[in-house]
Amino acid sequence: MIRVVLPGHLRTLAHVSSEVQLEIVGPVTQRSVLDALEAQYPMLKGTIRDHVTQERRPFLRFFACEEDYSLEPPDTPLPDAVASGKEPLLIIGAIAGG
Amino acid sequence: MSRVRVLVGTRKGAFILTSDGKRQKWDISGPHFAGWEMYHLKGSAIDPNRIFASQCSGWFGQIIQRSDDGGKTWIQPGTPPGEEKGPGGMPKGESNKFVYDVSADSGKPLTTHMWYDGTQHPWEFKRVWHLEPSPTDAETVYAGVEDAGLFRSTDGGQNWQELSGLRGHESGAGWQPGAGGMCLHTVILDPGDPLRIYIAISAAGAFRTDDGGKTWRPINKGLYSQYIPNPTAEVGHCVHHVAMNPSRPGVLFMQKHWDVMRSDNSGDSWTEVSGNLPTDFGFVIDVHAHEPETIYVVPIKSDGEHFPLDGKLRVYRSKTGGNEWEELAKGLPERDCYVNVLRDAMSVDSLDKCGVYFGTTGGQLYASADAGDNWAPIAKHLPAVLSVEVQTLV
User: Best interface-test mutation with B: which of A51, A53, A62, A95 has the largest number of B CBs within 10 A?
Assistant: First the structure.
């Protein structure tokens, strides 16, 4: 079971109140997590990565185990702690407003 | 008895104000979609309880919302009612998919336009500025977007297809963004001719199609813009807004970057009608619901100072279709007012007397129930207002 923590506005959009849990078969990567997230919550399509290019939206970042994975290739495996469900993948909006 | 519903898009959510025909007491609901930029909301003329809304964010992109009960509840089109609370429901999640048509079948696969520095820049979808529901079909709605393009949905906002003939116009590669981005902000559907559509783009200018969107032509003859290399160019003018009274679809009024203009021949040519305005810079323009020669603007000091002259917020009204303008000040701030009124932030109702409404970047929403003679704030402390649309409900 993979755990994902969404920014507040996306939790509202997806009608969830806390972290979401996803079942993933195969390697646990940014791409496979986002594929599973969008399959379970299709209203999030286009809000985290572009519909067409599938690139991460520029003001969003991906963190796990206190490390920044935003610039890693999308098929790079995420840490074992994320794959095992011990730690969540954090999707974080860039801080605005100081 | 008639009622009025005012749809207000702001930087931090949408608000809906309702009143009876007297327009003296107002109820406010909202914020809807709190924290999101609500660029525009507009109701269907043939199904007034159907409202489309553009919800967007610099972080999360574009969302389209639709209400079928007058703004009480909302769905992302394609989400069956009651199934929006995933994971049990499986909405299609496609209603925010605005993909430019670059297929060979659609003509020219235009992929770049001119950037501020004169170089070519990729066409990138950013947001929906304006939603224009069809006057004849509740399932059909048009979306004017940034970077400039026109999309249409024929299934209630679920799926969107670009009318790519516009972007494919031979001038497209030369279109350049204005300071607010390269936005297609005005969409006017001719009520007498379903094949005729007017649009306007900052800073390309106005265009018209007479064949339902397959082909387009610039309609900027008569515009003079001294801030561009060729002041009388066919395209490149920073048109801020265009308005039309549905009873006279051939007559158009335009607030350009500078200059207020009118056309009596469906945009084939324009003449300046700024007349005695204290400044002819501004963003909004609108037409009285029953008097097609009565028009309204809010003069703004200049392109560098986006606030009213001398700190006095004023609407100007012309009852002669331009040139002769009168100042409307009763109930509006007399001093220390330095707000702006953005291009889609004025609207009129169709009651008798005609109501006029506008919102400011300071979060005030002003209304006049007597065609502009007297004004009063009907909301004072909203987030910055991006758009105002009014529905007259019978």
Answer: A51
**What ipTM did this prediction achieve?**
0.85
Domain assignment of residue A64, yes or no: yes
Which residue do the tokens 């004017």 mark? B144
**How far from B171 is each of A76, B163, B233, B306, B325, CA to CA, in Å?**
43, 16, 11, 30, 36
The CATH number of whichever domain residue A69 belongs to comes to: 3.10.20.30
Alpha helices in chain B (DSSP H): 164-167
Residue B130 bridge partners (DSSP):
B144
Domain contains A32: yes
Shortest distance between the Cα of A35 and any Cα of chain B, in A, equals: 13
Min CA distance, B75 vs chain A (Å)? 10
Taking only the tens place, the pLDDT of each residue in B190-235 is 999 999 999 999 999 999 999 999 999 999 999 999 988 899 999 9
| Count of structural domains within chain A | 1
| A98 domain-assigned | no
**Sign of the torsion angle spanned by Cα atoms B346, B116, B128, B219:** positive
Q: Is residue B77 a contact partner of residue B97, using CB atoms and an 8 Å limit?
A: no
What tokens were used for B221? 């003859």
| Contact status, residue B52 vs residue B71, Cβ threshold 8 Å | no
Q: Which of residues 18-57 of A touch B (CB under 8 A)?
A: 38, 40-48, 50-52, 57
| Region for B35 from its dihedrals, namely left if φ exceeds 0, alpha if ψ lies in -120 to 50, beta otherwise | left
Mean pLDDT of B276-289: 98
- For residue A51, tell me if it sits in a domain: yes
pTM, to two decimals: 0.93
Q: Which of B120, B227, B144, B231 is nearest to B179 (CA)?
A: B227
Please, which residues have CB within 8 angstroms of residue B119's CB and are 6 or more apart in sequence?
A: none
- Domain of residue A78 covers 2-93
Of A40, A57, A59, the CB nearest to B87: A40
- What is the mean predicted confidence (pLDDT) over B287-310? 97
Distance in Å, alpha carbon of A9 to nearest chain B alpha carbon: 8
Put simply, whether A87 touches B (Cβ < 8 Å) is no
Residue B219: name the closest of B174, B179, B166, B258 by CA.
B166
Cβ within 8 Å, pair A15-B85 = yes
Tell me the torsion sign for CA atoms B239, B142, B106, B63.
Answer: positive
Nearest CA to B296 among B280, B284, B313, B310? B284
**Best B32, B37, B54, B59 residue to mutate vs chain A (most A CBs within 10 Å):** B59
